[in-house]
Amino acid sequence: MGEFELIERYFAAIGPSRSDVILGVGDDAALLSVPAGYELAACTDTLVAGRHFPLEFDAADIGWRSLAVNLSDLAAMGAQPAWALLSLTLPNVDEDWLESFATGFSALALSAGIRLVGGDTTRGPLTITVQAMGTVPAGTALRRSGAALGDLVYVTGWPGDASAGLALIEGRLAGQGANRSALETQFRRPEARWEFGGRLRGIASACIDISDGLAQDLGQITESSRVGAVIRAAELPLSRALYALLGEGRAREAALGGGDDYELLFTVPPSARTELLRILASGRAPACHCIGEITKGRGVRVIAESGEIKVPRGWNHFLE
Q1: CATH superfamily ID and name for 152-309
Q2: Does 276 score more than 70 pLDDT?
Q3: Which of 252, 242, 247 is CA-nearest to residue 305?
């Protein structure tokens, strides 16, 4: 199968039809229309086999994850997903693999309302690069740099579950049954919070998605905002599955440093807390927990009943 037949068969029609796609897959570049009064948000992530997912990982899950990690970046900016580009490097043409990959990618694209409008294919070690683009009303995008003294720190979902799921998949942890399944799912099919991210515009003072570990990514907010932060260890949300597998101490360490969660970590001024609680009570929001506050100084501290504890190091591509 040649490159153009591959693209036409598996990727030409991924995602819903959109009136703002003037020209999509099949030409030298896509032509897209950004609505008046909106700004374009764009992000990109690369996944490398054996580095970001196991070599024998299910192709449908690779397809889902490759888009989800980008949608999570858009969510952290409060942007609405619109378009995606896909560059796919393959060691060979495996039609069963391609069909499965496209199925996983397409399932999330349809859910998010994002249209695949172009990309590239080439031969080499399995590598997937996705660029996602979205729109946000001008001047309203969430950033890392807006946290202020006294703001509350919130996190969605259950941090630590995805890193434990990967450890189970790779055989570094042992576990069976419903707990194993729940944790593996959090790694295989992360839930990008693009809808909730949009609802945080005008409420959150700063926001980031958790890819490299909660404490490390909170450090990105404190660095950009020139403030400090305190996390209360007792307030960290630990899922039942994670607690059952690791116990409290190791589960807390996974929640702080595990990474791959693709949850939203954000700060909220006390004056906006009532509006946030109204959204959370509406039934249209993910699980969300207040875990600390923004303080004077620099960096992130974690406080337990026994006193301050060491902040675990998160992921770094060039130190691992």
Answers
A1: PurM-like C-terminal domain (3.90.650.10)
A2: yes
A3: 252
